[in-house]
Amino acid sequence: MTTIAQLPAQELNFDVLPAEIQQFKSVVREFAQEVVLPRAQELDQAPAGELDWDIVRQGHALGLDRVAIPAQFGGLGLGMLGISVAMEELAAACPGTALIFGASMLGQTPILYSGDPYLQQRYLPLFAGQEPVLACNAVTEEEAGCDLIIPANAVHAINVMTARRAGDVYLLNGHKRFITNAKVATFASVFANMEGHPGATGLTSFIVDLDQPGVTRGPVADKMGYRACLGSELVFENVEVPLSNVVGGELNGMAINMAQSNMARASVAGISTGVAQGALDKALQWCGERVQGGELLYRHQFSAAKLAEMAAKVEASRMLYMLAANKVDNQLPAPEYEPALAKFFADRVAIEVADAAVSLIGARGYLREYGVEKMLRDAYGARIYEGTPEVLALAITDCLYRVDEL
């Protein structure tokens, strides 16, 4: 039975990544800087419903949509550390592009996590085909957001998408919102509540093909940032899902959702770190060229202090997400504390560093053509998905008090 690819248990050397991940990091960096970055402004200003399939195809050729899939299914088998490092490199150029691939891999996660031979053989090889295939993860709803990721709140969830057994299929009915890749995905990992269970206490995980009757793809959201990826709605009206497409059995959706969140938070911290690194790069370039008072800007004490603080935050953020990703790859079940801490810190660092970059660059930082204001808008995106700061604070403090109680 195959589960998520594991790196050999080892202490992570932050100076030297495992050779296969270091090589992949270099390949992704070249792609990000030479292909994605020159198009970042164009992607940001394109109409909300447009997806750059050329970038997706080039990323697919590198394996960016199958980093954690085991080699036996055509994947790279590089685990969460490989995903997180790749997400940082992409996000330094354009976090929206990073999320196209990240969200698709999140849609794969329940299949990988479950170890279900049928689902793995049925869906994972799709990502190794000649043309790219995207997936999505459908959790969030109009009135049920955080209540679907906080177990204690499950009973209070309102108007959650429902599932009902009808012979040899389940019938799904409901409305999912803010789902990245929903407009273009081939299948979705969908969480619905079994009828007869209050709130989301009967949450169950399904893999749903999106090209079947009863599925409607809603309009694409016109977002403040992350505009390269498409966030839209999914409406389900008596959608039939075979029994074989239930992940982990009925009523186990909350546990699966929590597990995938714990795993994914390390990679989202990688995205936020990438945003911060991209903003720092812009600030360093500007302060190394701009002369004020007869000196390059970085030689002025106040500017130097800002740059030093920005650099320290980026490095600390990188260490936290790498530690978290390494633990995810070497610990079952996936840890809760380290990924939550990494994301909590990195999300804030992205905003603070992008804000400082705009301040250092001044009026030009406020103009679209310099790309820094885009980074500031993008920086706020990760605070919303895979756990808000408030949700993460609850997870972190629960872990701290749990340790004290042992």
Number of helices: 11
Please give the alpha-carbon distance between the first and last residues. Answer: 33 Å
CATH architecture of the largest domain: Up-down Bundle
The count of DSSP E runs of length 2 or more, i.e. the number of strands, is: 10
Work out the helicity level. Answer: 40-55%
Mean pLDDT: 93
For the sheet with most strands, the description reads: 8 strands, mixed
Instruction: Tally the structural domains.
Output: 3
By secondary-structure content and strand pairing, the structural class works out as alpha+beta
* SSE string: HHHHHHEEEEEEEEHEEHHHH
How much of the sequence lies in strands comes to 5-15%
Cofactor: FAD
Keywords: FAD, Flavoprotein, Oxidoreductase
Family: Belongs to the acyl-CoA dehydrogenase family.
Protein name: Acyl-CoA dehydrogenase
Give structural notes.
The protein is of the alpha+beta class. It has three domains: 114 residues, Orthogonal Bundle (Butyryl-Coa Dehydrogenase, subunit A, domain 1), CATH 1.10.540; 116 residues, Butyryl-CoA Dehydrogenase, subunit A, domain 2; 147 residues, Butyryl-CoA Dehydrogenase, subunit A, domain 3, CATH 1.20.140.10. The protein is built from eleven helices and ten strands. Strands 1, 2, 3, 4, 5, 6, 7 and 8 form an eight-stranded mixed β-sheet that branches. A two-stranded antiparallel ribbon has the order 9-10. It starts with 18 loop residues before the first helix and ends with a helix.
